[in-house]
Structure prediction request, 281 residues.
Amino acid sequence: MKKTLFAILVALSLVGCGNQQKPTEVKCSQRHHTKSLVLYYSQTHVTEKVAKLFAEATSADLDSIVPVEPYNGSFTETIERCQKEMEKNEKPQLIKPMNVDVAEYDTVYLGYPIWFGVAARPVEAWFMRFDLRGKTVIPFCTFGSGGLETSVAALRRMAPSVNILDGFGIRSVRIDKAEEEINEFLIRSGIKPGTVEEIPPFGMKRSLNDEEKAIFDAACGDYIFPLGTPVLVSSRTVKNGTEYCYVTDCKDQDGKPARSEVYVIVSNEEGVGPEFTKVVR
Ligand SMILES: Cc1cc2nc3c(=O)[nH]c(=O)nc-3n(C[C@H](O)[C@H](O)[C@H](O)COP(=O)(O)O)c2cc1C
Prediction:
C-alpha cells in the first residue's frame, strides 16, 4: 500500500514555475467590476483559509462544494476511497445544492486541494456539471508539493470553451504566506490595483555547485516524498532573496526515469532557511 501511495503522490504531485521583478504599476481590468464568487472544496480546511482570503481581497461572495458522502477519513482512507472510485470511473455523486446561483456570477474563483495531481474529486464533479461558458474561472489550490499547472490543464481539457486563467497555488505548509501571495497574484492578474516588483526570467540552466546542492538539501531534505536528484539549476533575483529552479532526475508514476523542476526561495532575511515552494512534474 505504502508503495502505491508513494507512486501516486510522487507521480502526481505537481507545481509550476513563475516568471515575474522592479516596481511595476498594474492597471485594473474590467474583472474588478464584475460580480464574483469564490467557490471551494476543502477536506482539511487549508483551501478554506485561502478561499476566505480570496473572498476578502476581492469582496466576492463565498460558498463551498459539499459532497453528500463527505471525504472524512484519514489521508490513507481518502486515497483508498478515491482509488476505488477511479477504478469504477465514479465521481462523488450527490453534491448538495449550493446556497448561491452560479449563473449570476461573471467570475468564479474555484478553489480545491490537489488530489492525485488534479482538482479534488468533488470539484471536478461540480465542474463537469456546470456550464461555465461566458464566465471567467480563476482556479486556486493548495497542495503538498504541487499541482496547479496540471490541475488547470485538466480543467481546460474538460471545458475548452471556458475562459480559465492560470490561477494561484500554494503548498499547505506555506499557508502563512498566502495572504501576501494572493495580494500579489491579484495585482499581477490586473484584478486589483497596485504596484508589484517586476520579476526577471530565470538565467541559463547550468550544473550545480556545492552551495547550490546544499541549498536544495536544506530546502527539500525533509519532504516526505523524494523529489529526485538535482542535476541542473538556474536562478534569479526576487524582491526579498534569490529563487532557484532545480531540474531533478526522478521517476514517473510507472517508475520510468523522468525530470521535474523543484523551486526553492532563499530569503535575504536573517534566520530564514531555504524554502521549497513547489515542484513541477
Ligand atoms: C487523496 C489525496 C490526494 C492528494 N494528492 C496530492 C498530490 O497529488 N499532490 C500534492 O502535492 N498533494 C496532494 N495531496 C495533499 C493535499 O493537496 C494538501 O494536503 C491540501 O493542502 C489539502 O487541502 P484541504 O485542507 O483544503 O483539504 C493529496 C491529499 C489527499 C487527501
About this structure: Residues 9, 12-13, 42-48, 75, 78-79, 82, 113-117, 142-147, 172 surround flavin mononucleotide (CB under 6 Å).
